[in-house]
UniProtKB/TrEMBL annotation:
SUPFAM superfamilies: L domain-like, Protein kinase-like (PK-like). This is Protein kinase domain-containing protein. The chain crosses the membrane at residues 220-244. It is found in: Membrane. Belongs to the protein kinase superfamily. Belongs to the RLP family.
């Protein structure tokens, strides 16, 4: 009939092995100072009026190895995670309290646990699957709580379990027919309204057939998969059509008035200087009216053609702008592709302009046919030496050139006139594919006419734009010849 609060000074009994204050009238909270009793192997405070939460310091007493009994009190709150410190505990009884929240999975660390009683509390949720590690568990009572879900299958696999009480909860689904569930006198599941099946002694309704549900589940799954596949196919088809239409349509919707500088990120003078080994003469692969073309090597080991404009030559700047605007607005497999542009200053403070193109390993058509120039010609063993191209190969190159010109004059919008089409401006790509280059004299016009290319309005009216013999034969040009 002891009453009052348990004094906190009880924590001074540091050599205490066993404390049993059960069946009295103690009230108040369990003193935290009990955590100082490091020699404690048994603690029983059941059948009192103790309230508040369970102190984590008390649950940290890893020496407790026999009984931890706080049953029949008014304890509330959750079961602290420190319960996992009771690694040697044999019996844990917290029944007849007001404990809430899900059952702590840390109980699974009490590997020596044989009896666990959590009955008549307010625990909710499912039984933690982690409790399946308690292979030596013999008794488990979680009755009269708010537990729900299906009965965990691990309970049927605990071979030492000889008492199981799951009554007065909200479990559902089928009762197993294994282990302790085969013994009606050792297993209790009453007052779980949604349970079914199990052994006959339980008198539970038989589980409804899942055939219909399974049929509809499979049907929905099949429909979902089919719809997903069809959606993916339709999406792929739409993307393919868009890609095909863009490839087929060679019209450029963007305006050529857009400055080329906004379409490509510029490359610096220093980068080109390093790529061409300081614009070395050994890297020169061609010279023209407005500049010199060098072979450049990128950081990744690839090759590019760098056309450096000779700005001292009259019309070089206009040639730079013309090539930028022209090649920046057109795309065709038989036109030389511009990669980048440089408009900067060199190391001496002079204006510097250059264009970067794809490197054409097989050189120009003029070198291939006339000069027999063999340096820079790759795959010689496959295509033969310059000057020995076959008729069909020449015909293929002619078709490539015609295809490019047809695109420029017919399909390109706005239409473009090259102005200086000659063998030295026809470059040979891989597989000897012909590509038209050097658009320095090109004219962009809504109506492509040869007359539009005859003269530069800002130059002398008698100056011919283009190479004699290859310039488009406009009316003014014929008059000049006459």
């Amino acid at each position: 009939m002891l009453t009052g609060e348990i004094p906190s000074s009880i924590g001074n009994l540091t050599s205490l092995n066993c404390l049993n204050l059960s069946v009295n009238d103690f009230y108040g909270e369990i003193p935290h100072s009990l955590g100082n009793c490091r020699q404690l192997i048994q603690l029983e405070l059941s059948n009192n009026n103790l309230s508040g939460s369970i102190p984590g310091e008390v649950l940290s007493l890893s020496t407790i190895a026999i009984i931890f009994n706080l049953a029949h009190n008014q304890l509330s709150g959750s079961l602290p995670s420190q319960v996992g410190s009771l690694a040697n505990l044999v019996e844990l009884d917290l029944s007849y309290n007001k404990l809430t929240r899900p059952i702590s999975s840390y109980i699974s660390k009490c590997l020596q646990l044989e009896r666990l009683n959590l009955a008549i509390n307010s625990f909710h949720g499912e039984i933690p699957l982690a409790l399946g590690t308690l292979r030596g568990l013999q008794e488990l009572d979680v009755s009269h709580n708010d537990l729900f879900g299906k009965i965990s299958s691990f309970l049927a696999k605990l071979t030492d379990l000889n008492y199981l009480n799951l009554s007065l909860n909200k479990f559902e689904g089928e009762v197993p027919k294994q282990g302790v569930f085969l013994n009606a006198s050792a297993m209790f599941v009453f007052e779980n309204r949604n349970l079914c099946g199990g052994i006959a002694e339980l008198n539970l309704p038989s589980c409804k057939s899942n055939t219909s549900k399974s049929f509809w589940t499979k049907k929905v799954t099949v429909i979902t998969v089919v719809v997903a596949i069809l959606s993916g196919f339709i999406l792929w088809l739409c993307l393919f059509i868009i890609w095909y239409q863009r490839k087929k349509s060679k019209k450029i919707t963007s305006s050529t008035e857009l400055p080329f500088e906004h379409q490509l990120s510029r490359v610096s003078y220093g980068e080109l200087f390093r790529a061409t080994n300081g614009f070395s003469k050994n890297n020169v692969i061609g010279k023209g009216r407005y500049g010199t073309v060098y072979k450049g090597t990128t950081q990744g080991g690839g090759c590019v053609a760098v056309k450096v404009l000779n700005l001292d030559h009259r019309g070089a700047s206009k040639s730079f702008i013309s090539e930028c605007r022209t090649l920046g607005a057109i795309r065709h497999r038989n036109l030389v592709k511009i990669l980048n542009a440089c408009s900067s200053m060199d190391y001496h403070g002079n204006d510097f302009k250059a264009l970067l193109y794809e490197y054409m390993a097989n050189g120009s058509l003029e070198n291939w046919i006339h000069q027999g120039k063999e340096e820079d010609v790759e795959h010689e063993h496959k295509y033969g030496k310059p000057g020995h191209s076959g008729l069909m190969q020449r015909l293929d190159i002619a078709i490539d050139i015609a295809s490019a010109i047809e695109y420029l004059h017919k399909d390109c919008n706005p239409k473009i006139v090259h102005g200086d089409l000659k063998p030295s401006n026809i470059l040979l790509y891989n597989e000897m594919m012909g590509r038209v280059g050097d658009f320095g004299l090109a004219k962009i016009s809504s109506v492509a006419t040869a007359e539009a290319m005859d003269f530069d309005n800002h130059n002398n009216s008698m100056a011919v734009r283009g190479s004699v013999g290859y310039v488009p034969p406009g009316k003014k040009f014929f008059s000049l010849i006459v």
